[in-house]
Design brief:
alpha+beta; 6-stranded mixed beta sheet; 2 helices; globular
């Protein structure tokens, strides 16, 4: 959990096709500021990838979050070009912020809602 955040600020959203979990999102409200929702992770079931479903999920989340927030922010590992391309395709822009971890660098992206 980020500093000053509690489990009340954290949500796991599941997206299903019948009983099959298609995607899961880890969402933290009001981080790093009151106007921003932060996606901690987004994972797609590999059997559903490449069909536009992930983009549809992000579009739905963006629409819902726009009712209360101005931005969505997230990070991806700098060397993960598949993640970079997915997020950029879905309207996220580079903030210029980076987080250097021990084994990798995280690039911070943001989307205006």
């Amino acid at each position: 959990m980020p500093p000053r955040k509690t489990m009340n600020d954290k949500h796991y959203l599941g997206f299903f096709d019948g009983e099959t979990l298609v995607a899961i999102v880890d969402l933290i409200e009001r981080f790093p500021n009151e106007n921003t929702a932060f996606i901690g992770f987004f994972m797609m079931n590999k059997d559903y990838q490449g069909r536009g479903i992930g983009s549809a999920v992000i579009t739905d989340i963006s629409f819902s979050l726009a009712q209360e927030f101005e931005y969505i922010r997230l990070g991806y590992v700098e060397t993960n070009m598949q993640a970079k391309n997915f997020w950029m395709k879905n309207g996220f822009k580079n903030t210029g912020l980076k987080s250097k971890e021990e084994l990798y660098t995280v690039i911070i992206l943001e989307k205006v809602l």
